[in-house]
Amino acid sequence: MFPFEYDRPTQQEKVIDALSHSNRTKILAGGTNLVDLMKNGVEQPERLVDINRLDLTTIAQLDDGGVRLGALAHNSDTANHPLIRERYPLLSQAILSGASPQLRNMATNGGNLLQRTRCYYFTDSGFPQCNKRLPGSGCGAIEGFNRIHAILGGSSQCVATHPSDMCVALAALDATVRVQSSKGVRTIEFPNFHRLPGDTPRLDTNLEPDELILSIDLPPSRFASHSHYLKIRDRASYAFALVSVAAALEMDDEKIRTARIALGGVAHKPWRATEVEKELVGRRAERTLFELAARLAVRDARPLNHNMFKVELVPHAIVRALSLAGGVA
Amino acid sequence: MGSNRRQGEAQGERLMADQRRELNRRDFVKTAGAITGAAVIGVPAASEAKNSSPHRVSMNIRINGKPHSLVVDARLTLLDLLRETVGLTGTKKGCDHGQCGACTVLVNGRRINSCLSLALSNDGHTITTIEGLAEGDQLHPLQSAFIECDGFQCGYCTPGQICSAVGMLREAAVERAELTDDEIRERMSGNICRCGAYPGIVEAIQTVYHQSQGNDIPASGRD
């Protein structure tokens, strides 16, 4: 690991000050991803600002009936919090399907949003090509082994996928991210938080360099009784998703009033299947509708040599997740 | 070539036999560890020395009931602090990337992967390792159960398995979760056993879970 300066301030202002003075300053929270990448030489910060002494661990109800998740609340505490289990079971399911219990005890909510892709051409610095790690070097995955890679929203420069389960649920739940910089506090809608790779795959998010995540805010719960997180992976536990689906329905008797479908494992960001959602609204929740609508999710898919199976897997996974969410046999 | 190799092997065996007379295995492993540890922790390799000299920071930590005041390289992980700085080699280094669980310890009573936690992030924290679970000669119930149920073969993953199980039983008690065999397997999925002792591990945990229904599992008398 390369040497770095280490600091553990107790005030937010000190953290933002450190971020605005050098673009090689990194924030350390749970460390589960950053410390790993520093061992591999993928991340080489000059300075680490350990924020674990900031007071950002609270999970509490908001005045509008929503819930605020502190950026430093641990993933395990979030998944098991009574407010989350009762009102946002989709989020609990998604978090508990990710990583291992030890990692969830360390990992924070803010850090979960900022974790990097598990594309092996990115995480193994022995590979000479990766536009995310070494801008301009090319992409090893497009012509290489690309079974775990994106089928939607990729570019000629990068086909990495976002690895988070939690973020897929947050995308379906219309979450917002509250961030602070020297200019003040702003709120980012979840679909605008992560980026598609385009010509700048080195950037995963739209956070400014001097912005610190304070919290993730959830609007009042509408989907608690009709939601399901389905994760499909190579082994029964402790593996990243090949494909995952967060399905959330708001029902009006047997008709669907509102639908949210977000996909993991298919794109550089949690992918909202908005065309599928639109197709479902106002219709009776039944399997034939789900099968028809789910196909729309992969209409623009551009599979690679080794991940064509995802084009078939995604609609099947959507149908199953919707059936479980809607209580349709 | 072949006979050279055989000669070399024979020589190597004689050397090993000499060493065995000089040192017992544990001391030998500790000495070798201290030497490689110094190379890794104390002095950065030439290729790594591009930024600056290592940043050293002071910290306090309580391990198995004993307070330590240390000045450490900012790059030191909690795992290397335990093994190399403090000399508690019960906690094992497996993958060193948070994938195998061999390095699992309890921090303030919660199980974590010590290989992915910087030592300095644990300033002021209370750590329990496998060495801190027994009360003198009285083994922790999970230690006894692992022996009773054949919960290991080579033993390398065992300290991590047992510390993880202590944390898991506490978590399940707080959540009031019912622990079926499948539930135990899911909750222990962060600890890999390449010998495949999983049936014994599940049985050991079930034994202690049933013994302790309604009671808190003691983490340690010394944390």
Walk me through the structure.
The complex is a heterodimer of chains A (329) and B (223). Chain A is built from 12 helices and 12 strands. Among the domains of chain A are: 5-52, Uridine Diphospho-n-acetylenolpyruvylglucosamine Reductase, domain 2; 227-326, CO dehydrogenase flavoprotein, C-terminal domain (Enolase-like, domain 1), CATH 3.30.390.50. The mean pLDDT of chain A is 97. Chain A has 329 residues and is α+β, with helices and mostly antiparallel strands. Chain A has helices at 12-21, 34-39, 75-79, 82-87, 89-96, 101-106, 109-114, 120-123, 166-172, 274-280, 287-294, 309-326, and strands at residues 5-7, 25-28, 47-50, 59-61, 67-70, 176-181, 184-189, 212-218, 227-232, 243-252, 255-264, 271-272. Chain A is globular. In chain A, helix 10 packs antiparallel against helix 11 and helix 11 packs antiparallel against helix 12. In chain A, strand 10 and strand 11 form a beta hairpin. The longest helix of chain A has 18 residues, at 309-326. In chain A, 28% of the residues lie in helices and 20% in strands. Chain B has 223 residues and is an alpha+beta fold. Chain B folds into 3 domains: 2-41; 52-132, Roll (Ubiquitin-like (UB roll)), CATH 3.10.20; 141-211, [2Fe-2S]-binding domain (DNA polymerase, domain 1). Helices cover 42% and strands 12% of the residues of chain B. Chain B has helices at 2-22, 25-41, 78-85, 141-148, 158-175, 181-187, 198-211, and strands at residues 56-63, 66-73, 104-107, 110-113, 126-128. Chain B has a 5-stranded mixed beta sheet, with helices on one face. In chain B, helix 4 crosses helix 7. The longest helix of chain B is centred in the first third of the chain and has 21 residues, at 2-22. The radius of gyration of chain B is 20 Å and the shape is globular. The termini of chain B are far apart. The A-B interface holds A 1-6, 8, 28, 31-32, 35-36, 39, 46, 48, 50, 52, 76, 80, 99-103, 105-106, 236-238 and B 44, 48-55, 57, 74-75, 77, 96-98, 101, 104, 110-113, 116-118, 120-121, 123, 164, 167-168, 171, 174-175, 185-187, 189-191.
